[in-house]
Amino acid sequence: MADGEIAARVRELLAFYSGAPEATLRPDSTPQNTEGWDSLANLNLMAALESEYGLTIATRDVLKLRSLGAIAEYVQTNAVPAGRTG
Amino acid sequence: MTLVPKVDAFAPEPKQAVPPMERLFRGVRKGTHSLGLAPAISVERAVLVEAHQPPKATRALSDLAIRHAEERDLPAVAALDDRPLSLLRSRLAAGDRIYLGELDQKVVCATFFHPGPQPFDEERSILARWSLEDSSTYWSYDAMAPLEMRALGVVAKLFEVALAELFGPDQVHRVRGFIHDWNRPSLLLHHRMGFTVIGRVTAVGFPGVKWVRWESGGKARQWLLRRNSDFALPP
Question: What's the burial of B86, exposed, middle or buried (CB within 10 Å: 0-12/13-18/19+)?
Fold first, then answer.
C-alpha cells in the first residue's frame, strides 16, 4: 500500500473514532486540538491499526505518537506487508 | 472494515445558549468551590449510569499488564494522584476490588469497584449513598492515571479488561456508577463503553441538611434530608 494511501486510511479511521470531520484532520492534528480525539478514540484507533496492518503497537510507542502525521509515519514504517498479516 | 456513523446520543447537548437558571446553578457551584465553602455548602449534579455487558474487547495496548491490586500495591496506586493511602487501605479492607495497570512494572493507572449489597457510601454527605441490590451488582468509581497516560487510553483499556472479567467469569449482572455532569470526557467514555443513563441527581447541601432531587424516566422526586442520612439512590 502506498504511503499516501496509508495516511488517508489513518485519517479516515481517526475521523470515524473521534467523530471529527475528516476534512479538518491534518498531519499536525493532535488530541489537544481535535474535538473528540479522546482516550477511547485513541485506543480504538490503535486497535484498528493493529488489526489492519498486522502491528503490535507498544504502549511506550503510543506515548510518542502525538500527532496524526506521526501515527501515519509509524504505520508506514512498521506495517507488515499485505499477505503476511495474521 | 465498515465505517458507520458514531452514535452520540449520550453526549451532552450541543453547544447552545445556556438558560438563566442553569447559568445560576453553575455559577453557585463554582462559587462554593472557589470561595472555599465546599463541602460545608455544596451544589452538585451527577448522572447515574449502568451497564449490563462488557464493551467489545480491543487488542491495543496489550503490553499494559492489568491485575487486581494487593495491599503492597497501594502506595504506588495512591501516588497516581496523591490520594490518601489510608483511604485506599480502607477500600481494600471493605472488599472493594482495585484494578491496576502496569507498564514496565510501574503502576500507571487504577480503577475501583465496590460490590453490593452494601451501599457505596463515599458521596453520602454531598449527594447520597448509592444502593446496590446484591453481590452481583457493582459500583464503579474513580479512575486514576497521570494525564499523559490517560490520553493514550490506558484507563479505557483498564476499564475494558475489568468489565470483561466482572461480566464474564465473575458473573456480575450490573455495574453502576455516577459521573459529575461537568465531566464530559467521562460521560463520553462511559457511553462508548456501553453504559446507559438511568437518572440524574441534583443535591444542594448546607450545614446539617441537604436537598436532593432525583430525575428518571421523565419523573422527578425530591427530599430534604440530614447530611449524613441513610437515604440511598436510586430510590
Answer: exposed
Alpha-carbon distance of B59 to A48, in angstroms, equals 9
How close A37 gets to chain B, by Cα (Å)? 9
Write out the three cell numbers for A30.
493532535
CB contact under 8 A, B192 and A31: no
Between CA B128 and CA B44 the distance in angstroms is 11
Q: Would the CB atoms of B155 and A39 count as touching at under 8 Å?
A: yes
The grid coordinates of residue B65 equal: 499488564
Q: Which pLDDT tens digit goes with each residue over B46-67?
A: 999 999 999 988 888 989 999 9
Domains and CATH numbers, chain B: 20-233 (3.40.630.30)
Q: Which residue intervals of chain A are DSSP H helices?
A: 3-18, 39-53, 59-64, 68-78
Q: What is the ipTM of this complex?
A: 0.74
| Of residues A83, A82, A81, A67, the one with CA closest to residue A10 | A67
| Residue B15 to chain A, least CA–CA distance (Å) | 13
> Which candidate, B53, B70, B50, places its Cα nearest to that of B164?
B53
> Which grid cell sits at B162?
475489568
